[in-house]
Each structure stands twice: as structure tokens, then as C-alpha cells.
Write a structure and sequence with these properties.
With about 450 residues, this protein is an alpha+beta fold. It has 14 helices and 21 strands. The protein is about 35% helix and about 20% strand.
């Protein structure tokens, strides 16, 4: 195994008491939970199964036969199957076949996706609470080095979590050396995967060449790494707590979709922006920079979310959530000049079924001579501006929305009353443009109103 050095190991820390203590740290009342153990037949997973069995905890076992190593793959399956049969443990097997379409490249990624899909199916069909894997301290070190080479940041350097997404890893504090010693002491049968000695993959190369050199530098290297890993995890947890507080301060709305203040979030560091948005699948630094410089109405997509830039807001909507429709270029013809009556014309918007979402009463009087027909109703557009009644000067419609503190949902229900030249005559149902309003000297009044 490359870095194994039996002559150096001291009294093993791994024992049943230490195992139970670690499991207690991961979840409350572990004896009352249900588990699916991923068991390959190697020393790590066979020790894991043994510890569960000796602890008196009920569990089931899942095994994948990838058919990659001929008879060796079948012997791996047999040792796991025999263990389960001997101890009356329910055994779940997946044998890879032609239908699985094994790729020529990225075998490790393909195998990982295949096994976790299988584990997920078994957990669901058997109604089991947790998946348990046999990752250990050396795996943690290898992952640290891999992530260090990828500039993975504090989350990546924190390594493999002991408890996440219903997956438990109770052997993480224990080294490979301790696991071998425990297996020997308790006469646990296991099989070695000789393919791990080949340097075909990055992890194997690190395992066989890099880690042994590191272990040679210091007899306490792994213990010190475990402490460093613990410090990194605590630092990560602290940082995530602070990130959560910042996200709360930047959140304007959070049910059923999330609205973040673009203005508040833009004042934070790029690190904070990245940490907040990556939770929604936006994990490319270049893309995040584009989000904060994008024009109003821009749309960004991740695997599970849509992010809409709406003025000074970032709206995050799960792709499965259809409660907010996309912006549409909706228009409704309202009146032609030829439809005006002699002295006063009235239009009650309540009678127009297509705009039934207007739930506020209003009444506007226009001087028909000032209007350019035909008039129509449309949705707000970028660059819209008007002279709102009751205010001095001109105002952008987008600024008016912000001043009124309208949510994105409310804004999507807004209609604009516009003339033939696309000028804004009013923002329904809030304000009309004072330049077109009628007075006592108006010869012909056009009254547009809504009664609720």
C-alpha cells in the first residue's frame, strides 16, 4: 500500500469504544437509527461493518461489483456476501453490465456516480436514514492535497465532512494504519484492491508517492494533520456562520423564492459574494462578476436555479418553482381616438378581464387633446420615465418602484398606460403623469379608473 509502515505504528486508537464515541458525536441516539453501509470488501469497509455488528446496531449492506478486475471483483463480492450471510444482514448487490456503458475515460467519476445512485435507491426503497461509508484519516489527507492543488478554498481544504447529506463517516478520525491493526487484532477478513497500487489516477499517485514522503518527515504527521483539519473545520464553520448573517442582512424576501439586495451584496468582498451565490449553483468567479455588472432583466442559469437581475435586486428562483412567470411583452389595446365620445369618455379597467390582477382603486382624468392615440396597456420596460402627479420633476419608473418598495412579484403585476409614442401616461394603479391630466378648462375628459 506504499505508505504503510507497520514497524512505526503505536497502540491503535481505533477500538469499539472509540468507534461508538465517534458515532455518538455524529448523530443523537445512533442505536435508534437505520443504516445502509457501503462495503467494498477492503479493510476499511469490513472493519466498519464489524464495528457496527459488534456495537449491536442494526444495518443493511450495499455492494457494487464493477466487473473491472475479473475474478478479483467476484471474490470481493463473495467476502462481503459471506459476512452478511453469516451475521444475517440484508445484502444489496449491484452488478455492472453492458447497459451501464462504462466510459473509456473518467472511470472513477463514472464509478462514483453509479454507486451513489445505487445507494440512494436502496436507502429510499428500504426507508433507511443514513448511508455510512468507510472514509478514514488517510483519505482525508489525500483529499486535502487534491483540493490544495485545485485552489479549492477553505471548504475544500476542510476535506471530507463526517456528517453531510445523510452520509456518515465514523472512521474519519482513524488512520489506515489503525484500521489494519484493528482488523488484525480482531481477525477480520478483507481483500486488498491491488489496482490501488497503480498510479493511473491522481488520488493513487498521491497515495503511493506523495503521502509516504510526507509521513517520513514527521512521526506525528497524521496526528498533526488531524488537528489542523479540525482547526480548518472550525474556521470553516465560523466563516459560514458569518456568511449566513451577511446573507440574512442582504435578503429582502425569502418565500417561496429569494430576493437579495444587489446593492448591499455588491458592497461585500468577492469572497462573500461567491460563498453566498455558490449555494445556488453559481460557482464560477467570472459569472459572479458578470451578475453584478449585468443590465436589468438579465437572466443567469445554474443547474437548479434561475437568477434574474431586477434593478437593484437579485431574484433566485428554483427551476421547479413556477410561481413567478418570466417577463412577457404583454400589450392590451385600450382606445382609439375615433372611440372618444363628445365631451367625456370613461374606461373602467375592471371590465377588462386580462388585467384582473389590479386590486387597487384609482381614478385618473386626462385632457384628451394632449394625448397621442391609440392608447394601450403594457408591462414596464427599461428606460421608462414619467412625471408623477404629486411630485416635482421627472422620475424613472424603476426608481419609482424602489421608492414604493415594491417586491418583484408586485412589479410583475404592474401595467403601464402608454400612448402611441410609447410615453408613460401613468403607472397603474399608483400615479398618472401630471403633464396629461385634465382640469376645469379641459374640453374633453378621458377618465380611466378602476373600482374595487
Amino acid at each position: 500500500m506504499g505508505y504503510l509502515c507497520i514497524k512505526k505504528f503505536q497502540i491503535p486508537m481505533l477500538n469499539l469504544s472509540a468507534f461508538k464515541s465517534q458515532l455518538d458525536k455524529l448523530i443523537h441516539f445512533p442505536d435508534n437509527q437505520s443504516y445502509l453501509l457501503a462495503v467494498s470488501g477492503g479493510a476499511d469497509s469490513m472493519v466498519l461493518a464489524y464495528c457496527f455488528k459488534k456495537s449491536g446496531i442494526d444495518f443493511q449492506v450495499a455492494h457494487i461489483n464493477y466487473k473491472l478486475r475479473g475474478e478479483d471483483s467476484d471474490l470481493d463480492q463473495k467476502i462481503v456476501q459471506d459476512f452478511c450471510k453469516k451475521h444475517h444482514i440484508k445484502f444489496h448487490l449491484y452488478q455492472v453490465s453492458e447497459k451501464d456503458r462504462k466510459p473509456e475515460h473518467s472511470i472513477q467519476l463514472w464509478a462514483r456516480e453509479l454507486r451513489y445512485d445505487f445507494f440512494k435507491q436502496v436507502r429510499k426503497s428500504e426507508s433507511l436514514e443514513f448511508l455510512v461509508t468507510a472514509h478514514h484519516l488517510n483519505d482525508q489527507l489525500e483529499t486535502f492535497i487534491i483540493n490544495l492543488s485545485k485552489a479549492a478554498g477553505i471548504n475544500g481544504l476542510s476535506g471530507i465532512p463526517a456528517n453531510s447529506n445523510r452520509i456518515l463517516r465514523p472512521l474519519l478520525p482513524f488512520s489506515k494504519e489503525e484500521i489494519y491493526a484493528f482488523a488484525k487484532e480482531n481477525q477480520i477478513e478483507y481483500r486488498e484492491d491491488l489496482s490501488n497500487r497503480k498510479n493511473d489516477y491522481l488520488r493513487n499517485k498521491i497515495r503511493n508517492e506523495v503521502v509516504p514522503k510526507l509521513l517520513e518527515t514527521n512521526d506525528h504527521f497524521l496526528d498533526n494533520f488531524k488537528k489542523s483539519s479540525s482547526y480548518l473545520n472550525q474556521a470553516r464553520d465560523f466563516v459560514q456562520q458569518q456568511i449566513g448573517e451577511i446573507e440574512k442582512r442582504c435578503t429582502l424576501f425569502n418565500n417561496p423564492y429569494k430576493i437579495l439586495s444587489k446593492d448591499l451584496l455588491s458592497r461585500e468582498s468577492n469572497f462573500v459574494k461567491f460563498e453566498i451565490l455558490k449555494k445556488y449553483g453559481f460557482d464560477q468567479e467570472i459569472e459572479i462578476l458578470k451578475i453584478f455588472t449585468a443590465e436589468n432583466g438579465s437572466l443567469f442559469l445554474s443547474g437548479e436555479y434561475r437568477l434574474m437581475v431586477s434593478y437593484d435586486e437579485l431574484i433566485l428562483i428554483a427551476k421547479t418553482d413556477h410561481s413567478i412567470p418570466d417577463q412577457k411583452d404583454e400589450e392590451i389595446a385600450l382606445i382609439e381616438e375615433s372611440h372618444l365620445s363628445q365631451n367625456q369618455t370613461e374606461i373602467n379597467l375592471e371590465n377588462i378581464m386580462a388585467i384582473e390582477e389590479i386590486n387597487k382603486s384609482f381614478e385618473w382624468d386626462f385632457d384628451a387633446r394632449k394625448l397621442r392615440f391609440p392608447l394601450r396597456l403594457r408591462r414596464p420596460k427599461e428606460g421608462d420615465e414619467f412625471y408623477p402627479s404629486g411630485f416635482s420633476g421627472k422620475k424613472k419608473v424603476s426608481k419609482f418602484f424602489r421608492d414604493e418598495k415594491l417586491s418583484i412579484l408586485a412589479r410583475q403585476k404592474i401595467w403601464i398606460l402608454a400612448d402611441a409614442e410609447n410615453s408613460v401616461l401613468g403607472v397603474i394603479p399608483f400615479r398618472q403623469d401630471r403633464r396629461y391630466s385634465g382640469d376645469e378648462n379641459t374640453g374633453h375628459i378621458l377618465k380611466i379608473f378602476n373600482k374595487k
